[in-house]
Amino acid sequence: MKKKLNYKIPLLFAVVAAFAMFVGARFSSHSKADGGISDPSSLFQEVMMRINSEYVDKPDDAKLTQAAIEGMLKELDPHSVFIPASELKASTEELQGNFEGIGIEFNILNDTIFVVTPISGGPSEKLGIRAGDKIIKIDGKNVAGVKYKESDVFKHLRGAKGTDVTVSILRSGNPGLLDFKITRDKIPIYSIDASYMASPGIGYIKISRFGSTTADEFSSAFEKLQKQGMTSLVLDLRGNPGGYLNIAIDIASEFIPKGKLIVYTEGRASEKAVYNSKDYSPFKGKVAVLIDEGSASASEIVTGALQDWDRALVIGRRSFGKGLVQQQYPLSDGSALRLTIARYYTPSGRCIQKSYKNGVEDYYQDFAKRYKSGELENKDSIKVIDSLKYYTNNHRAVYGGGGIVPDVFVPLDTSENSTYLIKLLNKGVFNQYVLTYTDKHRTELTGKYPDFATFDKNFVTDNSFINDFVKYGEKAGVKKDEKAMAISGSFIKNELKALVARQLFQNDGFYQVVNETNNVYLKAIQSIKDNSFEKDGIVSK
After folding, report:
1. What is the pTM of this model?
2. Is 322 among the residues known to form the active site?
């Protein structure tokens, strides 16, 4: 493993040179002999002129222009979008890997702002703000019991680096308020949700997105696990919507020898661009990649490359199917155009972009269609097209035309679903209850469970705990259902334990508990331990 990843490839998804869009030239009265307008932009200008001169009320030109742009882009593809100036910063923060503020994760419960956890390395953590603290005042103004909204919290706690904000905190065991003067700073947004040893020799890393800091985060997590004896890896890309292309190439290069094709892109106005693996002294152990219907774009680039080179066993369900490359162009008013400029192709030559011929709304109803067709529960229901058949390095058949089909299919488990469970989830009862419970018992919990291993072995969601949770749900308007508890009880117990683990041991604790009963994860561990890799023609070096 390298010490630090280098990602200087131009960002196909990042901001590039300024691009000004000029909509509509001067209206021209010149028309074809048949009465039609010769220039479509003139037709648009003609309609705008007529609206401005004749419409019953004074029109809002800015709204009309935005609606026209958005409607125009819908006719192209589902991923070409217009981003208003007011939304641009928020839309790029997650991929940039930071924002400016005080650095806390929070929740609003009983009209009070609870600190779920201070973000590691942020100014709040450095000042000693703790999980479970309640923010009562901001700059001397009361914010508890006044129906403060999430947007209000962002408005008053986020701000430019170097500016100050004072928060008054109520902490369990302290008689009065504690005042903290916090100097805002850049706050990291982490894209590695969890990294831990799943079992002796087998490491686990979950990547939530491919942002600007992902490569360095991955390198640190990987090296940590190697020091703990990792010889095989479970790489979890489930629910990962993608991100920067160059970061996907960096991650794929961790497993594929130098100079091998990772992906190539090509478009009508974009010349073919080829991206090969870098010189990273790749990992030689077994790799299992977990995917599902939420794995898209950069996730599919990594998965497709590792599958085509027979470098990883892909486990789960068919991925989303986004094989389009976007480039972001700043516009003259501070807004931006994120435009599809090319398609990407895996090393075997397959484009995995699914069809969008029936429009944007149909495109994003894909999960419901997969559920209805039975694909999420039965691999035989996955429709593949023989004309889009390709072959991996070891001559295994793979398919283009709509997502990556896993080597090992694991169905969606709906056996514990119930209307009662869905109501509890939709009303946020799980998170609210655990926040209240840990706030009340935090000192006891931290003393009793100094590390995750002790917690995992000894913490039990017993009958008393569950009864208390059910009563809390009833207060929130979810009536107890004994029959549903018989169906969903095991899930409820495990989810509650996982959420308590998150409060005490952050995301690593949460995923270690959740994964203990997750069929996709368990199949990956089993496949690494048995001969699945050899049987499927997957190489481990």
Report:
1. 0.83
2. yes
